[in-house]
Fold these 2 entries.
Entry 1:
Amino acid sequence: MELSICHLYPEVLNLYGDRGNIQCIKRRLEWRGISSSVTELKIGEQADFTRFDLYFIGGGQDFEQEVLLDDLHTGKDREIRAAINDGRTFLCICGGYQMMGTYYETGEGVRCDYLGAVDLYTVGGKTRMIDNYCFRLGQESGGSTVVGFENHSGRTYLGKGVKPLGTVLKGCGNNGEDGTEGVRFKNVYGTYSHGPVLPKNPALCDEIIRSALARKYGAAILEPLPDRFEKQAHDLVYERIMSGTMSTD
Amino acid sequence: MSKKPFVIQTILAVASCKLTRAALRVSGRGGGTALPGKVAMRFERNILAVTSKGMDIIIVTGTNGKTTTSNMLEHALTARGDDVLANKSGANLLSGVTAEITCSADWLGRPKKHTAVIECDEGALKQVVPLTHPKVIVVTNLFRDQLDRYGEVMHTLEEIRKGVRKVPGSVLCLNADCSLTSSLALDAPNKVVYYGLEVPYGDQSGAGVSDAMHCIRCGAKYDYEYRTYAHLGSFRCPKCGYRRTDPDVSVTSIDSMTAQGSEVHMEVAGRPLKEPVHIGLPAIYNIYNACAAIAAYRAFGGDAEEVAASLADVNSCFGRMETFMPGSQPVQMILVKNPAGCSQSIGYLTGLDEDFVLVVCLNDRTADGHDVSWIWDAEYEKLAEDGHVRRIYVSGDRAGDMMVRLKYAGIPEEKISAGCTDKDILKMSAESELPVFVLPNYTAMLSLRSVFSEATGKKDFWEKQA
Ligand SMILES: [Zn+2]
């Protein structure tokens, strides 16, 4: 078995240790004897979007997103929508997650058209939602708890019938109002948990890998890994967040 | 503009500052670095403007190298006979700077020292400079750092710009090789001096995470004639023409680099320095810090040959390459706070020719940043490839995250020990038969350093100043 991974815009969407996610996916495949390749697709470069099984798109600085939207609107947006409808797996973080939606509206009312691949939109807010947080994945994504760090001023709202990735246990999530976090649409996993969300949440990583293998090979059973360090790191942070002792000095 | 405070307010502010600090020290609660400033500011909000009046001040800001550059400047100024005030404690917010300067004034708030080298947090610059009117402001570089405090590197740059705008009379001393830093000159009326490296260093591919790939003015991707590290190098925008400015102080060749330090040739104002420059601290980033110190010292009215000569015996300071001897082997502490600095420190370690033991400490307190995601951008993979790393001990609030990071970097689990307290690390270091290197982040360094200082009889930073 083999997975082809495409890292979209690594040169601009690379904030906050995003590349830890790719590394986590690669290692967990490697430890199970499954090979993988990572292709970086940068601004201005073309590729065949039917070639890849798993796409990763991270978060970026506002100032660099304009450059990128111009590039998306050269036709890549259509190809990405087709790949999603084809059931290919996408892991989208923070800015990359917002970009899957229909638009972003700034606090001043300026609207920016996004990919429109998933029925959700984002509105700019005045205050940033910054902190360690934690949510429980929906049953269709395995139901485990995820610990992460959110840092966003945009508030994201899901369309009718669109499922979130999980339910907030502590923190803000999509918008700080409705208790939802992220999105799960077909095999698109969107989350505000920026940076390296997968290493401390190996169950989510395996869920994502499984979805990509299942689409390609029909079914996939992943051999369990020991995950001693990973569980320890997850549990330590989980307990501190839930008991409210995380961000105290 | 602030009105002139009444004398009584000044006296109360100064007295409260001095007394609070004395009380904190007597009660054994550390150096009292920020609280005395906060107390003084309650009596007179702009007390710093009074207690720094008439002083000649250099302010050093930027992501990495603030403390070392300040230390180099203080060392050179002291060598020429100045009585220099410096905020060695790393208390670099408005309250800390206020405390440091106010405590050294007399009871009427008149400064007793004439010269000061002040390390200042990037976000606090806009508060500190209008009160202190520094002669020179050094900006060392800009990298991603402590993300949850500032959001983004561009935001940090704007914070610095706000500060610079308030003092058009200060000379800016900027890193020519950092496209973000040198953009501060674009719309500033200030006199500017630049420093940089005229030679490539290390990997020229530009791989790895970069904090500034695209032109800050127009968004086009920079071309590089050569690189030094991270996004530093001779950059040029092919679209709008924004480019590196030829530096006034530059390194023209790196002749040697060892664990003890570097030797370089330099040019100042177009003329080579007579002697090669010995820098008594290792690694490429200290070559940059040395350039910054020379450029700032000149802008301050000093002689380049003089400051260059003083760099040979500059001491490591406060957790930056600081060495302790708790047993038979040296323990070197290297503060790491962000991916660029951490990767450079790892590069320094993997360049060594001997086996060693490594300690990695990661906290997530306010001074460190609550978000520890940055560890995934630092190149711990290099440690996995280096056979000299015999064992790795992990400690801190976020030891769990660090263990996972090291595991995914390719380091075998058996090589990693967790659950260490500061005391365990001290004991291990005292018994070690190999040199020990410690990579702590800020608050981890503070607590570890105090345990090592106590055990080895080193004084705390604030006792040295008394
Ligand atoms: Zn440009």
Entry 2:
Amino acid sequence: MTQFDWWTIVGSLASLDGFGLGLYVLHVAKDARRAAREARVLARKRNLAEELEQARKNIELVGDYLNKKEWLAVRIRAQEIMTSCRESLTRWPDGLSEIRKNDVLSASSLVHSIADEAAAPDVSEFKLAKLKRLSNTQLQAAELLSGALGEARNRVEEEGE
Amino acid sequence: MLSGKDSQFLTYLSTATDAGRIPWQPTAADDQFTASLRGKYNVVVGTSREGAWLRMSNEQDQVMLFITNMDDPTDRVERILNAARRIALNVDTAIDEIIQEE
């Protein structure tokens, strides 16, 4: 065989490899797209109890971040809780009793006040009394969210029976 | 400038707060209290350099109403704030505790 033939063989093999790699990339991309689509469907299917559970987990994290004085993290988690509260009330308007809906609204309002305080310019100079008030507000919001979560779970169980 | 409805709302809040029907709670901010109504609305009262204010928002956290004490010649916003503070901070219980005879 001539040198020209060898290069032809090498070139053909390389293009076959490229083709194979292209197919693989296409396959991976399709898998990723399917996974993203499934995640979106799952997020849509998330029920009220799961939404409130997420808020409850986040309010616990806010407590941790308050202790560590990680103010940016406090604000980010607070924002997520407020979004969860808003979602809970607008996507499932009949999902909770009026009392528990009030609790969710109040929890959101309390968390909003924590986020506002965490954004204060003098946040690094907060005195102990102020930090204690922030912590008490976080606990109060956690209690309100737990009450709402309890009712949402009860309803899920009742519907399942 | 207060509308007739705004005025009615302030009167309702003032009366219901005095009657202990509104469960005001302290927020993380200084002299600021919150309560939720009808499972749809949230009211926050607070104070700034210009005096007392009241804000009502809906379940999507959109501000529906913002009234300052200067908007109301009868000082109802200030009175609501004072009454909300008494409830949220259990002022009456604290006074009872202090003045009780041993």
